[in-house]
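The following record pairs a protein chain with its ligand, calcium ion.
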Amino acid sequence: MLRPVARVIIAAALLLAACAIAAQARPRIRRDFVATYPKTQGTKLDACVTCHATEDDTLNPYGEALKQATFDFKAIEKLDSDGDGVANRAEIDSLTFPGDPEDRPGARRDSTRADSTRHAPSRSDSATVKPKGEARPDTIKAPKNG
Ligand SMILES: [Ca+2]
């Protein structure tokens, strides 16, 4: 009776080890990216979406270029992987995504896009909400007599 239980425990331990190894694979590239471009540490570029279209394994144009360059970041700095007119290095220096043509230096992202959740809105993006109600008494002008 103990043997099947031991098998399950061993299988679970092996599965856990395999998952841990798989989880380490992508972050290593991300760590290498941040080591190559220290300015990106803790920014939106310090994330999987710098190379991936989403959080899955689909690569965006920058990720594809990086893969083809055997993960040599410097080799693809002069390329414009996403075709937005800005070279990858210039985008990284400006902290914009080199694999997303909608995100480039000076461009304002459309906050209605489905993938906008990967960017926290800045204070300037939030609309100013004016309180409803009557005009304040100090803004009401009394009619002039005469
Ligand atoms: Ca871009």
